[in-house]
Write a sequence for this structure.
């Protein structure tokens, strides 16, 4: 439980818990398009204004997600800091059954004032492009971890 302190150097905010991540398209609805998972797990630890998280999704049905839009992972447990230019990168630790070319690497970030991970793909010498719903597939495994400020 939290025990608020006026001393900035006192650890007075610590929490552990679970959340339910989901894949979404531009509607940002994590279930409204009929998507389903055989594994859908998220865990977090919040220490002060930092949230550390890990998640795992195994896709069993993409439903009617719009294939031409960018993948977003929704459902992070806290809204990120709204300060401009404070995006936090995430790490894709494991993945599989994607419709991408060998050597391309999924990536992403938590945008300001958000509970979503915006997903990109390292697939160009100049940087990233959008990781599209069409590049996912049934049986796809998404394992992501990261941290962000609240």
């Amino acid at each position: 439980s939290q025990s608020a302190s006026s001393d900035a150097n006192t650890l007075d905010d610590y929490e552990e818990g679970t959340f339910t991540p989901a894949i979404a398209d531009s509607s940002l609805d994590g279930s409204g398009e009929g998507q389903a998972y055989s594994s859908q797990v998220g865990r977090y630890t919040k220490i002060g204004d930092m949230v550390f998280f890990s998640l795992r999704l195994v896709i069993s049905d993409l439903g009617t997600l719009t294939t031409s839009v960018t993948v977003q992972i929704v459902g992070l447990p806290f809204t990120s800091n709204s300060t401009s230019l404070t995006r936090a990168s995430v790490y894709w630790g494991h993945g599989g059954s994607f419709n991408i070319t060998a050597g391309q690497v999924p990536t992403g970030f938590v945008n300001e004032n958000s509970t979503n991970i915006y997903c990109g793909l390292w697939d160009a010498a100049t940087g990233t492009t959008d990781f599209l719903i069409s590049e996912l597939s049934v049986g796809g495994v998404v394992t992501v971890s990261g941290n962000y400020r609240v």
